[in-house]
Design brief:
Elements lengths: L4 H11 L3 H10 L4 H11 L1 H6 L7 E9 L2 E9 L2 H4 L2 H14 L5 H6 L8 H12 L4 E9 L3 E7 L3 E8 L3 H14 L11 H16 L5 H19 L5 E2 L2 E5 H8 L2 E9 L11 H9 L3
Antiparallel strand pairs: 1-2, 2-3, 4-5, 5-8, 6-7
């Protein structure tokens, strides 16, 4: 039978399930609205979609490599408890393996899993099973003809580093360094002019408060600016395994240079709501 757009709209509004799931349920139940609602509730999809607007700031960073390409993927859930669940972990690992074949997170969510459903659909099924909002939030990739180093810290921070020269041990050490010290840029040349200007204005204001002559203030600002740029850049930072040398000097001693790096941390940029534990327990008790 023919299912109208109005029927699909009504079912979607009443259950919160996705448009395609609503249409499928109506087709399978011959347009019977109540039966379609019951079917969606049995499958868990109605509840799954209602959870989609809840804040998911926990989760994992997973990594996968293929030939000269490596990827990091952030997959979010609502609690650390679900982040450690075996079902969630298996889903994350499969998503990572698919990520090496695509270019962005939209293509990743559309990619087919081994069960023949899209990643987005598989995530929705997992929501129904685990009871939390789950989604594939973002991915980052690096390609190089040189050497790739990857490091995952506690499942929450992931880093990829591409180097020219050096070896796998150096690449991994640099990835660990980036995980620990989180540089914003590769070197001073990569720092945007507007960032340098902003830092300089702050340092000038601080130095002028000393009451020293302008020529002394200029020297103070120059020295402090160089120090600040070193803090912001990978090559300027003291190497995490040996604070007596900078990463730049380490690279020079190994005849290597960094082509690029990416770092993802679970929940970066996600606005977290303050949890009301009592309200959360009541909500779960009501089955919401």
């Amino acid at each position: 039978m023919s299912i109208s757009a109005a029927q699909v709209k009504e079912l979607r509004e009443r259950t919160g399930a996705g448009m395609m799931e609503c249409k499928k349920a109506l087709v399978e139940t011959g347009g019977d609205m109540d039966a379609a609602i019951e079917q969606l509730r049995k499958s868990g999809l109605a509840k799954a979609d209602k959870k989609s607007d809840r804040v998911a700031a926990e989760g994992v960073i997973v990594m996968a490599e293929s030939a000269n390409r490596a990827v990091l993927v952030e997959i979010n859930c609502e609690t650390d408890f679900v982040a450690k669940d075996d079902n969630f972990r298996r889903f994350a690992d499969e998503v990572a393996s698919l990520a090496v074949q695509v270019d962005d997170v939209d293509a990743l969510n559309a990619a087919n899993t081994k069960d023949g459903q899209s990643v987005a659909e598989a995530a929705k099924q997992l929501v129904a099973k685990l009871g939390e909002n789950i989604h594939v939030r973002r991915m980052a990739a690096l390609e190089t003809s040189g050497t790739l180093g990857g490091y995952i810290h506690g499942g929450r921070i992931g880093v990829l580093v591409a180097i020219e020269g050096g070896d796998e041990e150096l690449a991994r050490d640099l990835a660990m360094h980036v995980a620990a010290l989180n540089p914003d840029y590769r070197d001073a040349e990569d720092v945007p002019a507007e960032v340098i200007d902003s830092e300089k204005q702050i340092l000038v204001a601080q130095a002028e408060e000393s009451g020293k002559p302008p020529e002394i203030v200029e020297k103070m600002v120059s020295g402090r600016l160089n120090k600040r740029l070193a803090e912001l850049t990978l090559t300027g930072q003291p190497f995490v395994k040996d604070g007596d040398v900078t990463v730049g000097k380490l690279l020079k001693s190994k005849g290597a240079n960094v082509e690029g790096f990416v770092r993802l941390e679970v929940g970066e940029g996600v606005e977290k709501k303050e949890a009301d534990f009592a309200a959360e327990v009541m909500e779960q008790a009501r089955g919401n």
